[in-house]
Design a protein that fits this description.
alpha+beta; binds protoporphyrin IX containing FE; 13 helices; seven-stranded antiparallel sheet; three-stranded antiparallel sheet; 337 residues; single chain
Length: 337
């Protein structure tokens, strides 16, 4: 990891969240062409870009670790149902805990450590000052379910998909920073059902092809893709449950404040087969950057201007940009003369 976690900043109220120069430099800029269209943009989740890259490890722990864990604790305190698991997903919860403990302690030994003696495990997280002895597979030896316990210690949202009948079902997860969707609403849905609201992609066959790819992912060969949207203010929790808190903020963007107020929100999505349960783990690792910070990289600003200018209207509406999209295009135009 390049940048050590910094003191807690906020994703609500006074919005003190900020990116260091290093965080801007390693930001996963998602536009690879001048026009953005939905595609099956899946690749193998293998290391890329060296030690400064967000693709160095399975899970990227960065300078926002403490802030994101503090934000998650607030959301779960307000609404514990942001973490859900159906009865048949209990084993997948242990798979998830193991995957996270092993990869964090291997990739970031300065912060996390795991000792295993058969089923007797000892976990330490020095960033959150946590030490835990427990019996792997025995929930009574943890303060909460394994999904809840470990989800509170890893950056990113998590869904655990049960695989049956050549389909995936959203039967467990911890989702505290979604881009306008709800785990409680989607729980139990199939792959095409929870993707129901997405425009254009169904008829282009994207979801049929993506599902074939996902159901064939074997153990030990994770895949990844990037997705993006825009958000007003550095707000992580843009869930339907909290819409009254943030929906109206879309009307507050002006030509004067657009560079500071509008954030590009990029999701690094990782898909990994769980070994015991055969569930598919879906990680949504979210990165936020203001337009102002994007503009520090002239190539990004120019590319983003073109992608925004040519974005199809159904995507503008679906992503919730209708009210302020023109202000984003106007602001970015100065970097694309
Ligand atoms: C949007 C979940 C994999 C493409 C969404 C939404 C959810 C979701 C909950 C929001 C839908 C709404 O508006 O309510 C998942 C899960 C996946 C997965 C759990 C893993 C099993 C994929 C894959 C693709 C994909 C592999 C590849 C093509 C999309 C697209 C959108 C979307 C294009 C619209 C995003 C936007 O415009 O902001 N997904 N997805 N998803 N998903 Fe997936």
């Amino acid at each position: 990891m390049r940048v050590a976690p910094k003191p807690v900043q906020s994703f609500r109220d006074d919005f003190t969240y900020s990116n260091s120069d290093e965080a801007i430099e390693r930001f996963p800029f998602p536009f690879v062409e001048d026009e953005y269209r939905y595609s099956v943009n899946i690749e193998s989740h293998t290391p890329k870009g060296g030690t400064d890259s967000i693709y160095e490890h399975f899970i990227d722990i960065d300078e926002h670790y403490l802030s994101e864990m503090a934000e998650r604790a607030i959301v779960l305190e307000e609404n514990p149902r942001r973490c859900l698991s159906m009865g048949h997903m209990a084993l997948a919860g242990w798979d998830f805990l193991e995957r996270m403990m092993v990869s964090l302690s291997t990739d970031y030994p300065q912060y996390f450590s795991l000792r295993r003696d058969k089923d007797q495990w000892h976990w330490e997280n020095t960033l959150l000052d946590i030490q835990q002895d427990f019996v792997f597979g025995d929930e009574s030896t943890l303060p909460m379910s394994p999904l809840d316990y470990m989800g509170r210690q890893v950056q990113g949202d998590f869904a655990l998909l049960d695989q049956r009948d050549n389909d995936l079902f959203m039967d467990a997860g911890m989702i505290t920073c979604p881009a306008d969707w709800s785990l409680a609403f989607d729980a139990g849905m199939s792959f095409s059902e929870w993707h129901g609201p997405v425009p254009m992609a169904h008829s282009a066959g994207i979801f049929d092809r993506a599902l074939k790819y996902l159901t064939a992912i074997p153990i030990g060969s994770p895949a990844r893709r990037l997705n993006w949207t825009l958000t007003v203010n550095a707000r992580m929790d843009t869930s339907p449950e909290k819409y009254p808190d943030w929906g109206h903020e879309r009307t507050t963007v002006t030509a004067e404040n657009v560079a500071q107020k509008v954030y590009l929100r990029v999701e690094l999505q990782i898909m990994d087969r769980m070994p015991r349960s055969n569930a598919l783990l879906f990680v949504i690792r979210t990165y936020l950057i203001s337009l102002e910070d994007i503009a520090t990289n002239p190539e990004w600003a120019k590319r983003m201007h073109r992608a925004m200018k040519t974005l199809p209207q159904p995507l503008i509406d679906y992503k919730g940009l209708t009210r302020y999209h023109h202000l984003v295009v106007d602001y970015l135009a100065q970097f694309d003369r």
